[in-house]
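Private note to self, pasted from the team thread so I don't lose it. Backbone tokens:
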């Protein structure tokens, strides 16, 4: 068991850490799922509930993960082992297994973003203009050779960045991709809000209609808030473990949560005005991204360019998240098994890519488990089972089991007390476990 933290890699700068952690949190869920869930749940009122949840429960669990990771200076499993031992390392294990499962199908969907960048400049606009975007998407996802090829390309890029290390790989590329992501988002927003008829979309997005809020909407906001911040899977514990002892953790948690939420919120400005300008239904499901938006872009002047930029934006969001998922697994095998970064990155990345092949094939409808596509089963197992359990136990661990140690770490041994400490502790003790348990229980319906 190699538990050496002396020569452990560290972030080169605060900015590098913030960009990497925000990149981990900003994924396809912010840009693809957030606008869709907002559309289904009636717009602005849902956004307000989402903000409230993210800045209470989300931020508290994120700070809990940072505190655990930095204190131990180890991966998710090793951190619990070092701080408390007993059965607690199982919580870290759930994160590592969730990382494996999520990245296996995430790599498949992320591969679509590369395919669609290429398609945007090679005929997709013509098909979309003829009303055939849905057929084109169907033909693509049911072609396993194409889907697997793009998945392999995406995973190879992910593996390469992780193989380069914390400073030269993850930090360096997140510092390029995250600012690029914001720039592309702003270009798309300017284009979207200046379309004739865009004001209807802005009204839908910004004027709350509380009559549309139901228990289901609040549940959707809770789930989206929890998943969009990459919580419960050990990413933030792992990234926290590369932090130096001077970093002020509460402010880091606020910054990362703010950036993540900004991207989700801004994505709505890029999508709703355009969707309403062309009279398309906003709650059009996950197909919004790959079917509805190409139809919208096809009607815009310069649509090819905007379509390309949109899928490039999705690609960056997916890549910064996939890198953190792989790093959770790599850090475990480095710290606990004494593997080199090279061996861990390429071997684990290869295994995860192979694990993703059934998900890629299942899109053709051929590979089902108990009536669900294989990809949906992997998603269900990780999102509804492993992640909520991880989140519940991380909160309870900090709130009850290791309270004094967590307080000391969060305040840098009392040097930097923060104003919302009492709220943080009670959210970790009661509010977060109860709220996440609700996600867990409701999610267990097959």
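Design output:
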């Amino acid at each position: 068991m190699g538990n050496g933290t002396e020569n452990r890699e560290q972030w080169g700068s605060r900015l590098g850490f913030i960009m990497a952690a925000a990149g981990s949190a900003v994924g396809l869920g912010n840009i693809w799922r957030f606008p869709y869930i907002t559309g289904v749940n009636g717009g602005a009122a849902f956004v307000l509930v989402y903000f409230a949840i993210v800045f209470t429960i989300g931020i508290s669990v994120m700070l809990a993960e940072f505190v655990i990771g930095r204190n131990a200076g180890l991966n998710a499993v090793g951190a619990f082992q070092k701080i408390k031992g007993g059965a607690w390392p199982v919580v870290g294990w759930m994160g590592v297994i969730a990382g494996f499962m999520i990245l296996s199908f995430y790599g498949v969907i992320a591969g679509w973003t590369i395919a669609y960048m290429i398609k945007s400049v090679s005929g997709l606009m013509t098909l979309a203009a003829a009303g055939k975007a849905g057929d084109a998407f169907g033909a693509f996802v049911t072609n396993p050779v194409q889907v697997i090829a793009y998945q392999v390309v995406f995973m190879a890029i992910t593996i390469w960045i992780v193989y380069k290390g914390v400073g030269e790989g993850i930090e360096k590329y997140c510092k390029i991709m995250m600012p690029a992501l914001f720039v592309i988002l702003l270009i798309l927003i300017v284009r979207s809000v200046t379309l004739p008829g865009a004001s209807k979309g802005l009204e839908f997005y910004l004027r709350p209609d509380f009559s549309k809020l139901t228990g289901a909407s609040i549940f959707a906001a809770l789930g989206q808030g929890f998943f969009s911040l990459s919580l419960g899977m050990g990413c933030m514990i792992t990234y926290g473990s590369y932090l130096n002892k001077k970093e002020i953790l509460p402010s880091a948690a606020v910054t990362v949560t703010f950036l993540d939420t900004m991207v989700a919120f801004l994505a709505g400005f890029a999508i709703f005005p355009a969707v309403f300008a062309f009279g398309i239904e906003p709650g059009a499901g996950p197909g919004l991204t790959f079917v509805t938006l190409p139809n919208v872009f096809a009607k815009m002047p310069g649509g090819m360019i905007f379509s390309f930029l949109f899928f490039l934006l999705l690609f960056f969001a997916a890549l910064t998240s996939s890198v953190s998922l792989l790093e959770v697994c790599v850090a475990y095998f480095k710290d606990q098994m004494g593997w080199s970064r090279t061996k861990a990155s390429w071997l684990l990345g290869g295994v995860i890519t192979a694990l993703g092949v059934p998900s890629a094939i299942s899109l053709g409808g051929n590979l089902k488990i108990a009536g669900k596509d294989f990809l949906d089963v992997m998603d269900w197992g990780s999102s509804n089972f492993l992640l909520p359990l991880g989140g519940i136990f991380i909160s309870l661990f900090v709130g009850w089991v290791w309270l004094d140690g967590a307080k000391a770490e969060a305040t840098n041994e009392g040097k930097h007390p923060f104003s919302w400490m009492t709220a943080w502790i009670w959210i970790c003790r009661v509010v977060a476990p109860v709220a996440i348990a609700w996600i867990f229980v409701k999610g267990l319906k097959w």
